[in-house]
């Protein structure tokens, strides 16, 4: 068992799906021959921030390309532009509405989707970047969802690599 536990991190299968209708952005951009030329500086900053164990927040007006920047970032990671550390990561995009819109558990423990996502990530959590669209929706949610989400974002929390996306207007309100 000891030998297997030493080898498993090297052979563990990559996660290809997560709950909450998460979109596998890495699979989406895999094989895409379009060179990610636009928004180089934000992508370089995103890589630098994620490598230091902090989270990224993309803000801007609606329809300026924040989500597209994440797709280009995932493609650049896949191509190895930001080194092997990020090249081995899988990027998943989740709509905050899918996190907040879930019903509470019958045990009174609040929304269970965050725990389901964390459980699905398992030992691969260090190799996953979660992109949360409209992140302000989760942070401002009523009940235990916002509280639980914030704990998952803490240092050493269940979600070590997160890119949040929101508009300037919504950012100013929260």
Task: Supply database-style keywords.
single chain, globular, alpha/beta, 10 helices, 174 residues
What features would you describe in this structure?
It is a single chain. This protein has 174 residues and is an alpha/beta fold. 45% of the residues lie in helices and 14% in strands. It has helices at residues 2-11, 25-29, 40-51, 66-78, 84-87, 96-100, 113-121, 135-139, 144-153, 168-173; strands spanning 23-24, 56-60, 90-95, 128-133, 162-167. Strands 1-3-4-5-2 form a five-stranded mixed sheet. The longest helix is centred in the middle third of the chain and has 13 residues, at 66-78.
Q: How do the helices and strands line up, and which of them pair or pack?
A:
Layout: H1 2-11, E1 23-24, H2 25-29, H3 40-51, E2 56-60, H4 66-78, H5 84-87, E3 90-95, H6 96-100, H7 113-121, E4 128-133, H8 135-139, H9 144-153, E5 162-167, H10 168-173
Parallel strand pairs: 2-5, 3-4, 4-5
Antiparallel strand pairs: 1-3
Helix pairs in contact: 3-4
Structural class: alpha/beta
What is the helix tally? 10
Mean of residue pLDDT?
84
Low-confidence parts lasting 5 or more residues at pLDDT below 50? none
Describe the structure in brief.
The protein has helices at residues 2-11, 25-29, 40-51, 66-78, 84-87, 96-100, 113-121, 135-139, 144-153, 168-173; strands spanning 23-24, 56-60, 90-95, 128-133, 162-167.
